[in-house]
Amino acid sequence: MANISSAFGTFHFEDGFDLAQKQNFVQVMGVLAKCYFGTHLSINDEAKGVGIDDDSLAFTGNGRWVYENNLENMHNWLVQELDDKLLKVYHELLNYMSDDDQGIMVEYVDDEFGCEVLYEAEGVLKAYPFDDGVALKYESGSCENYDYTRSNLQALNVYDVFECMEADVTKQLVAQGYDITAKILDDLTKKLENNPFIEVDDAVAEIRSMIDGQVDETLTTYLPGVAEFVPINDEAVIKHVQQEEFSLE
Hints:
single chain; 249 residues; 6-stranded antiparallel beta sheet; 8 strands; 41% helix; elongated
């Protein structure tokens, strides 16, 4: 099964878009709100319909891998899902958009955690002659891809707060007897930045392992006859120390 992305954005009607056709667009899009890979207009949460001054409609969507796939397949999905009554409404909308060369601009942000996909894109929905009728086609425009990091997720308003924060991790580490140095705090910040949804216990365990590893590296000694630094708690080293004669001169 395809991964599901989470998108949010805005549909912008071009100047002069007929009010009745805006209302037709809202009607047919209501069907996609019920689909597994759906698109939900925020106006459907309100009691009123689209007004003459509503040139933009906010939306959220669940992308099939990415939301761009939804836009590219929107026509086919609508034709499959609409009943006969709404199919006539849809064809009326398409004929209007084709005859009057009207389009609907799309601006959105999309993220998918599993594959660490994060991008901001825009494009336009246009209607073109197709076979014996008219079909809706999505024309992609600009697209900016971003690293899947906490700062980018916040900058794009995808997430405001994360479950695991620095204070949550340092609090547990201090309670377990660890001193939090500036380097440890810097390493923790980088780990959370590049693992946005890491759980607190996992972050504590990883930082603790890192600290313990650094301690193990420093607990070494150089012994006569031994060609390298070795851990002082190694049994062979202890035996070597016990057998070695040392001079205080």
